[in-house]
Design a protein that fits this description.
homodimer; alpha/beta; six-stranded parallel β-sheet; 2 domains; about 200 residues; about 45% helix; CblAdoTrfase_CobA (chains A, B); transferase (chains A, B)
């Protein structure tokens, strides 16, 4: 195919693509807070949530963050986001459930974290709430799912919520607006590369 | 199953999980810069990159960002990250390819953007380089893939690179360390909700 034909084809394809996208966008006309879920076994679930925190701060929005489960490393994002007064940052978890191996204790910790989450979810001055690793707490049955769904649905109309963590349960996916599965295609540790600062933590 | 049995089972499962994970981590002992790719049709490819930028800044790292393709909205992340002196932020694209519909012009713009990327990729004071939407430029053949791979592989040993955008080409996946596919499970616009500030842009 000569170059000019290729360019003409390209132009036509791009025009059709533009029409499809423009039509879809024109049809979406409601404004309200959305519930996003990032799940799956791949990278980027939490970091995408933190990227949206940065984006929201760029729009001068107020952001609440609750980390339900946290490794023993002090993380870069905690250090970074805690410096902003528009951010209310709460690290509640004491480690992964496979580190503590004590379900009763994990339940107590998760419920204290949920109480903190509810404070943010009932305060309409917060435009965005990130519930980091909440999926793991739900999947491990550390929290009552009906209470969680009720509290999420009672939140202010314009408040956005992002829930991260692998193993999102169907009940939560059901009430979510946007759900993304992060799928692992390839991971550096399989070629022997250690977790890298600024990338993994 | 009585509660105590369930808890014992849980404890055993978590112990096995901990062993598997600890063994894998112990085997990964190399330190070097990694090349990450975020691709797929789901949300979170760019925002996850920006979350890692935040994380890296929390570790006082220097970060370079090149946006290869950019919509007409001024984005929250641009406004946010441009305020940090450790960040070198370059918006090079002039819109999506289906907006411009002119391949020659898109090629010129992409190649100017790549020149900027090479400046960052040859400067070892940058610990992390985010090449946002580079995948789209490669998929649309706006850049020479062999040049791109060569320049990526010539970068400083400890420099991390994140490449985002749907449709990552096999040649790039091949040389990457960690690849994640963001899969769309559900999207708010299908239920008529507009793109929300702080979430979509």
């Amino acid at each position: 195919m000569p170059d000019t034909d290729r360019e003409k084809n390209h132009k036509q394809r791009m025009q059709r693509k533009k029409e499809v996208i423009d039509t879809r966008i024109a049809k979406a006309d409601k404004n309200r807070g959305v519930l996003l879920i990032h799940t799956g076994n791949g990278k980027g679930k939490s970091s995408s949530g933190f990227g949206m925190v940065a984006r929201a701060l760029g729009h001068n929005m107020r952001v609440g963050i609750v980390q339900f489960i946290k490794g023993s490393d002090s993380t870069g994002e905690e250090r970074f986001f805690k410096q902003f007064e528009q951010v209310s940052y709460h690290v509640m978890g004491e480690g992964f459930t496979w580190e503590t191996q004590d379900m009763q204790r994990d339940k107590e910790v998760a419920n204290i974290a949920w109480k903190q989450a509810v404070k943010l979810l009932s305060d309409n001055t917060f435009n965005l709430v990130l519930l980091d690793e909440l999926n793991i707490a739900l999947k491990s049955k550390l929290l009552d799912i009906e209470t969680v769904i009720h509290d999420l649905q009672q939140r202010p109309e314009m408040q956005h919520v992002i829930v991260t963590g692998r193993g999102a349960i169907p009940e939560l996916i059901n009430i979510a607006d946007t759900v993304t599965e992060m799928k692992l295609i390839k991971h550096a540790y399989t070629s022997g590369v250690r977790a890298q600062k600024g990338i993994e933590y």
